[in-house]
Amino acid sequence: MRHISNYLYIFYSFVFILNVVHVFWNNSILYSIIGIFGIVMTAISFPRATRVFKILGIVLLSVGTFFFISSEATVADIPVFFAGNIGLLFLLSMLPWMNSVVKAGRYNKLLQSLLGNNAKGLGSLYVRSEITMVSLAAFLNLSSATISQDLLKEQLKDVKTKVKNSFILMATLRGYSLALLWSPLEILLATSIFITGANYLEVLPWMLLIAALGISMDSLVGKMMFRKYEIEAPPSMEKGAGQSKSKLIQFIIALVLFLSVVVFLGNVIQLDFLFAVTISIFPFALGWAVLAKRRKSFMKIGWPTWKWKTNNLSNFIVLLSTLSFFTGTLNASPYLKYLQDPLVSLEGSPLLIMLFIQAAFLGLTILGVHPIATMGIFGGVSGLLTGAFPPVTLTVLLSACAIATVPSAPYGLIVTITSVALRMNPYQIVLRNLPYSVLLGFLGIGVALLTLLIY
């Protein structure tokens, strides 16, 4: 079995290729076949997953089964429910290639310098780490989390595990969410704009305001929380300033080009954002390595890393496949209506509606409902919401409240990646980030109220 597990990447890649075919050929039978393979992947991965993810998978399957029984869905629909997150798994499989080109080009040394140069203690490092994360996440999305977390783990290897883990999960997850607030590529922001019909350029200044307030708030909290811990900067950081500047310019150019490729695929070719990012990673990383004259190093690092990471997607497969089943059955069940009724009863009370929306996003996220699914619930009563708020106000409200939950989503992709990287229970991460999510949601509500004075 151990020998066979070394070749799981072949089977998984075959399923991912089928998913690519389905993007260009929307065939219901093919989608069902992908779902059947998704069930097989889940069955293979369950024994290999860690205890926490087995428990999460069992809970999601059990609740999803309850919703399925209460719905009018048939047994033939079950594979479709398991196919929804195959694209996310494909993205996770491709992320190591972006990390590999960063390592091959020795850009990780540059990022380490950005994270730690002149940092006199963990308090100063926290501010630098969060700002660096905000900058990276706007371009690299999920790759920014894995790169930054790997670097911080190495940089803080002499710090106590509890302090180190708290530092990493706070700086990276919170910084990641602050970047999502204004990124035109963020799916939650894009979905809220789709629901409201607002203009992105009108929304952008308000989202940047929330991000700026969020960075100021959390940087102050992090600086105070970690100020008593000291850290020594590696000696290598004091040298090669000129080389670092050159590397930084190369890195910024590469990131802008990557963003341009994704925007081109999304806006011109009209590909889904998630899919555009996924299929861009390898060819872009390879081209970057060739131009940097690091192709051999890139393949030497990337190929074995990709195989190992893909073979060991078990935790992610169990979580995302069972979550897909849960979300699909919830949407098919009559219980979805009960989530919409309270909002209807609050008609005529704007502030109460805002607070309800924040509570709904946060509460449902903690229970395992993806913010996109919750956004869909509010989309179902969009007529009521657009009657209560101007499009810009509603967009700011929905997107800010949804994105605020990202660091506190126990089944969210970024939390799951961090959970695996730090070997922590996802709910430990949630408890550490929950106050931040609440405060960022309040900031979103405050700015949304401010927009009411203008629109």
From TrEMBL:
In its keyword annotation, does this UniProt entry include Ribosomal protein?
no
Listed A to Z, the keywords are: Membrane, Transmembrane, Transmembrane helix
**TM annotation in the entry:** 7-23, 29-46, 53-70, 82-102, 178-200, 206-226, 247-267, 273-292, 313-336, 348-367, 372-390, 396-422, 434-454
What protein name is recorded for this chain?
A: Uncharacterized protein
Q: Which organism is it from?
A: Halobacillus dabanensis
